[in-house]
Each structure stands twice: as structure tokens, then as C-alpha cells.
Design a protein that fits this description.
The complex is a heterodimer of chains A (260) and B (240). With 260 residues, chain A is α+β, with helices and mostly antiparallel strands. Chain A has a single domain, classed as Ribosomal Protein S5, domain 2 (2-Layer Sandwich), CATH 3.30.230.70. In chain A, strands 1, 2, 3, 4, 5 and 6 form a six-stranded mixed sheet that branches. A four-stranded antiparallel sheet of chain A has the order 10-9-11-12, with helices on both faces. In chain A, strands 7-8 form a two-stranded antiparallel sheet. Chain A is elongated. With 240 residues, chain B is of the alpha+beta class. Chain B has a single domain, classed as Ribosomal Protein S5, domain 2 (2-Layer Sandwich). In chain B, a hairpin with a 2-residue loop joins strand 1 and strand 2. In chain B, helix 2 runs parallel beside helix 4. The longest helix of chain B has 35 residues. Chain B is globular and about 55 Å long. The N and C termini of chain B lie far apart (54 Å). The chains are: A alpha+beta (260), B alpha+beta (240). At the A-B interface, strand 3 and strand 6 of A face strand 5 and strand 7 of B.
Amino acid sequence: MTITPVIKREYIQNLAKNGKREDGRKFDEYRDIQIETNVISKAEGSAKVKIGNTQVITGIKIDVGEPYPDSPNQGVMTTAAELIPMASPDFESGPPREDAIELARVVDRGIRESEIIDVEKLCIEEGEKVWIIFIDIHILDYDGNLFDAASLASLAALMTTKVPAERFEFGKDYPLPLKEPPVSCTSVKFNDTIVIDPSLDEEEIAEARLTVATDDKGDIRAMQKGLNGSFTVDEIKKVIKSSVDNGKKIREQLYKSVGK
Amino acid sequence: MKSDIKLLENGKRLDGRKLDEIRPIKIDVGVLHRAEGSCYLEWGGNKVLAAVYGPREAVPRHTQNPLRAIVNARYNMAAFSVDDRKRPGPDRRSREISKVISEALEKIIILEKYPRAAIDVNIEILDAEAGTRCAGLTAAAVALVDAGIPMKDIPVACAAGKIEGQVVLDLGKEEDNFGQADLPIAISPRTGEILLLQMDGHLTQDEFDQALNLAIKGCNIVSELQKKAIMNKYQKKEGN
């Protein structure tokens, strides 16, 4: 946790009282998003996502391995995130700490529980051989809202992933079987103000955080509340509405970037 | 390792290069927002990012040197940068590369200006295809310039090697795997001093002389590209 200067906190709070944000955005306005796919030639799928100055790369590797004994006909998926010291002066090298683990687990849940990967189609030989999907998230530049950047990069990478069947002599390569993905939007609250897609400065003074993943029908598919502040029921409803609205735009951009 | 692949045919290499030809290189300066200096470099199939933080207080404190700054280069390969997924985190190979790169950079940075400080140089290999340590050091040098770290020169690296009995410049993937020798070096182009040198394989003394000369020639080519990229970035800034 870094110490935020009092001046910065008061500056952002005063701006918010006048309905403004540091970078000139509206409270419910997302930063510009750039999605670039197939950026890593060694990966089976990859994507680089920029949300404002935040930059994340996700690479997908696929291998053949044994299934878990309790799900012999299902492929295996693992997600790992690295907050490498390149991305921020506050990140240190070493094994992933709790914030990197929370990030990886929230992204993992968004993909696993919404069942966008059809794990039963990833079975090669029941109880013996299945495809193992490794989702590796690399944070390159940290200017807030890693949750959305990491999950968007992971979705875009998965949507461009080819299963390398030829390399393992199981027939021809084919695209990873996927369903409609839910898109997540994160908001934070400070001083009774709620802003979507927080910048790093806003994240540092935030009291509460809420991530909402919504699907193409506007239904809610995953949520995660964070930090030690609280939301009222009305605030939660407001956050959900702006997450659905922004989620729709982000989904359109995601489809466009993967050529759908 | 032996293979049936013919690495040389009619004087041309597998990817069509001549013996003394370097792979295409692209350098972008200042690509990250948080880092004090950064560089993105593509060298053939390699994609490398370098970021510099500091000089800042060295931690833990016992690493501090009261007379000068220390350089912590950290070479790290992304899990998805190689054919078979690499387990995240440092291994023995990346620790060794980090050490020799740190030492090479310490020779060229004016360390006496910053007692007790650390200069952190992060090198991320995003896509790997032979010659990542040379690409990493070359990118790190540009990121150091971008961060405004005082240096005696802009260091640069390049490798030479031997395939099918011939000395060649800048080994590609198959050449690295099935070739007979690999000689990566880093130099200070202004003085010609050698800052990093490793060799594996088998070279006669004559072949070594030839390979070293060729690698130095390669370093000088890459050095011009580094300077051009830096000038590009800072000239544009003045124009605005």
C-alpha cells in the first residue's frame, strides 16, 4: 500500500464535488481501449490490451496432460498473473503475492464459472489425456483497473487461440471451442462518488471497489466487491446499470478485434 | 545436437540471410507510462520490453554501496514466450543472464553519482527466438537513455556463431539449436571495450578472431539503430 499525499486526495475529492475527474472523464465514462490480438508468435493465442495507460498482455499456451481424477472427461485450465516490477515502482520481484493471486483468481472465475470454455470438448482420451490450457497474464504498465484489463486481454487471447493438435499428432489445429463471454466493468467509490474504470490515483483513494461481469443479454454473470468500504443497495444498482452499458460497448470492440 | 536440417545452401541461410546479415530490428523508445525509461525492441522473432526505475534507495539496505549505485538487471521470460510453457519466475539460466547483464551495465553507467542507490533494469522476454540476451541488453541500454541515467556510452550487444563450418552473424533459431558455436558479446561502441562475452561450442583461434570481429561489426550496426530510435523520439518531442 502506498501513502497517498493528502493534497492528491483532496484534489481528486474536490474535482468530484464539481462533477469532474482528473483526466476530464465523466463519472460513468470508460477510458479508450485498444485491443491487439496475435501479438506473440510462440503462444497459441495472445492479446495486448491498453485501457488508458494501463497495459496488459495475456498469452495462452496449450499442452497435453492427465485430467483430474474427479473430472476424467474434462480439460484443465489454469490462470496465473504476474505483477512484474516493470509495471510499477511498487511491484517487487518474487513469488506472486496476494494481490496477484486475487487478480488471477477473479479472472479465472470469470472464465471458469461462466463456462465459456467447453471443457468437455477438451477431452482427448477419457481419464488419460486432455488438453491443458495455461492462461498467463503479464502486467506491463499499471495505471489502475487491472481487473478489467486482465480479463479483457484473457478473453481476446482465448478467442484467437488455436488448439495445436498437429504438434501433438491429434489431427488438424482448430479454434478453441468458446461460448459468448461476459465482459467485466470495475467501479470504485470514494466520498460518496462512484466512478467507473478508475485510474491509479482514483484507485489509491478508493474506499470500495465493485467488479460486475455482464453478458450480451445484460444479465449478471460474476461480481466481486473489494476494499473495506461499503455500498448502498441503490449504489450497487447504479453500478450494475453503468456496467451493462459500458460492457455492451466493450463487447462490440472485443468482437471487432478478434474479427467476429 | 545433430539434425538433418541443412543450415546453409548456396551461401544463403535458412531464412535467406547472407553470412554477415543481421535479422530485421525495430526499436520504440518510451512505450510505458509508469517506468522512468522504457524500450520495446523486436529483433527477428524476438519481442523484448525493457523498463528502468531509479536511481532510488537500494533495498534491502545491506545491498547498498556507500560509494556508488548498484545495478539490478532482471531478465525474465514470459511463460508464453517459448514453445513449451515456461514456469513463471526466475530459474538458474535467467539468474545467470541477469547477473552478466547487470555487470555489463555497471561498467558503463556513471555509478559514483548515486551512492547507496539502485538502478533497476527490468527486461521482459515476451517472444523468444534465439539471441534474447543480446536483444534484452540492447533494449535495456535504450531504456536507460530514456530514463536519463548518465552513461559513458550506449552499450549494445550482438552475437556471432558458427554453422556448417562457417562463421556467421546473429544466429537464428535453428542455427542456435543445431549450429556449432555461439558467441554473444556486448560492447561500448565508442571505445570498442567488451562488456559481456560468453561462448559455447567449438571454435579454432582463427575462427574466434573472425567471429569476434563479425560480432563487433554487428554491434556497430545495431548501435546506429539504437541512436536513430532515440533521436526519433526526442526530435518529435521538440517539434511539438
